[in-house]
Design brief:
178 residues, mainly alpha, 84% helix
């Protein structure tokens, strides 16, 4: 297990240390080859995690680069490739290794992981209940109402996250984390 942790950390930081796209590109087929049978499943997960965030960041960078009159293409390729590689690598690695067991070496990290996983499970369950309630009350799909439902659901999760984070922060302070 210690070898896995060290290997993961070494490869992760090696990818972080690479500063040029031409050195990142050969890692793509290598990483895809290692994850052969999980290629499509992992790419779907990476795409879902990667696209919205990176598109907004890339669009902002394009706008600033256009404003300053510089060519953004090399940097955009580099940063998007690096984020894709890191995300793919982390998803692939943790599909092979138990996350809880991986962080078991540290009591504090184990505690933080437990808090995080419980919050993820709670949010997933709440979202699924919202979705099922929405479907049960709609006979036909109504796009305009759906937007307001999504907005209300997002507002609920935002308020819930603020309440939960304040509560967890107090609990962590009580246990000496800060």
């Amino acid at each position: 297990m210690i070898g896995q942790r060290l290997g993961f950390a070494a490869l992760f930081f090696a990818i972080l240390a690479i500063r040029e796209s031409r050195w990142l590109l050969p890692l793509l087929p290598l990483l895809w080859g290692v994850s052969r049978r999980d290629f499509f499943r992992l790419n779907r997960r990476v795409f879902n995690a990667f696209v919205l965030f990176n598109l907004s960041i890339s669009a902002g960078y394009l706008l600033v680069a256009w404003w300053q009159g510089i060519s953004p293409w090399e940097y955009l390729l580099y940063i998007n490739l690096k984020v894709y590689l890191l995300t793919y690598f982390v998803f692939w690695f943790f599909s092979r290794v138990d996350v809880v067991e991986f962080f078991a070496f540290s009591r504090e990290l184990g505690y933080l992981l437990t808090i995080t996983l419980s919050q993820i499970i709670s949010y997933r369950r709440s979202f699924e209940e919202f979705r099922l309630a929405w479907r049960a009350r709609q006979a036909t799909p109504l796009r305009s109402r759906e937007r307001s439902f999504i907005g209300r659901t997002f507002a609920h999760f935002y308020r819930k996250a603020l309440r939960d984070s304040a509560e967890r922060s107090l609990a962590m302070k009580a246990r000496g984390f800060f």
